[in-house]
Amino acid sequence: MIRVETQSVSRRQFLRSMSTAAIAATVTVRDQRAFANVAANDRPRIGLIGVGSMGMVDAREHAQFGDVVAICDVDLRHAKQALADRAVCDGRATVTQDYRRVLDRSDVDAVSIVTVDHWHVKIAIEALAAGKHVFCQKPLTLTVEEGRLINAARAKRPDLAFLVGTQQRADRHRFLRAVNLLHKGYLGRINKITCGLGVCPTGGPFPAVAVPAELDWEMWQGPAPRREFRIERSHYEFRWWYDYSGGKFTDWGAHHVDIALWAIGRNAPDTPYGERLLRIDGRDAKHPVPLKDGYPQVEDSYNTSPDFNVILHFADGIELHISSRADNGILFEGDGGRIFVNREKITGVPIEQDWDIGQYGAEELRALFKGKPAEGHKANFYRAIREGGETISDCASHVAAMDLCHLAAISARLGRELAWDAATQTIPSDSQAAAMLSREPHPGYEFLQSS
Fold first, then answer.
1. Which of 290, 291, 346, 391 is exposed most, by the fewest CB atoms within 10 A?
2. What is the distance, to the nearest Å, from the Cα of residue 44 to the centroid of all Cα atoms in its chain?
3. 110: helix, coil or strand?
């Protein structure tokens, strides 16, 4: 029952309440948990590849929609924890340290890839080739070249669902409202976007120690260069080493740069020439260890940049600032106004004055969700498995965002401005920077190539 207040209600208040009700209706009809309660024979069988800290969060969410039948982690301590977790599988799954044993199983319909970043694309390509639906945590890629490889593999299997773990794309109350505002032109011509990513830790030197008995350090390193084991190089802390990740450029850039590009419509391969990226200026960046030609000269300390403001220049004059010095979130500035959005809030005059009244409801949400109902991130993945179509966080658009994150990191590591040829996806005038667009995998861990 709707309660009608006796005092007068302004048109603005009325429209806002109707818009909110429309969004709420869309959400409650297809609630994430309710959607999980389907018949047993409709529940997909899931293989978990990587069940560390974030992997366990994802594992419990996946288990709402399907049955976990296989668990893989190179650290058996993680695998055993997931196996025993009642919210994951309550002991009803097999355990392995080799992800290939999961992909070999004909009874696995979908996989959740929540490994260290440098393994993501290799496993995802092989999972697609094995006919599995893929959920992969962000950042999807480690290099620009990996983006090309995974896009090619994805193009060969459009029948399979593929979702990247950028859950901000399903945030109806903040990020999607911001995207809708920009799509409808409420901020006018956009001049500047600032993606605040926060500051990564610094530390070291860290001692080399014995590898824990239950950790397969060789497999953990996989395609990455071989290094001595240090506790701070493994598990969550891998983010602060360029061997395995890109620091804040890719850790939070995968979220905020993705939303920024989506909001201005530049996350597709066919972006018009006049809107393409031209230059990347990473001269304003510092690193905690000495670099030579962009590569750290010590192996015992965190090496990703804790202090940076990289500016990406687009052909039509938009500047995208990727910065450690701004508040965590995204600031959009246009001729008509400005808004700031992060995971806690969305602010600015356009929000305070409800410029989008009557223009942000069920219809707009369905369009943002690519014709599907607005619902939770994982629910969207399992709907795509059941019904087909693209997910809210698809492979190609995420690669477009990651490419910018990688270019920002390369420019910061080299400490100079780079020219980018968007048509050929190359850095034509700087062979040193161009070489950093890809990385040779360690022998024995080569990537499966799409024919």
1. 290
2. 23
3. strand
Both tokens assigned to 33: 């948990």
pTM over 0.85: yes
Query: Domains of the chain, with CATH numbers?
Result: 171-355+395-435 (3.30.360.10)
Query: 119: closest CA among 107, 129, 127?
Result: 127
Residue 257 near residue 401 (C-beta atoms within 8 A) = yes
Element (H, E) at 195: strand 190-196
Encode pLDDT of 214-241 as tens digits. Answer: 999 999 999 999 999 999 999 999 999 9
CA distance 51 to 34: 25
Identity of the residue numbered 343: R
User: pLDDT of 199-212, one tens digit each?
Assistant: 999 999 999 999 99
As a residue count, the chain comes to 451
Identify the DSSP state of 426: B
- How is residue 172 written in tokens? 């109806």
How far is residue 53's CA from residue 56's CA, in Å, rounded to a whole number? 6
DSSP H helix total and E strand total for the chain: 16, 17
C-alpha span between 244 and 263 (Å, rounded): 29
> Among residues 62, 69, 66, which one has the least CA distance to residue 41?
66
**126, 98 in Cβ contact below 8 A?**
no
Report the alpha-carbon distance of residue 260 to residue 175 in Å, rounded: 10
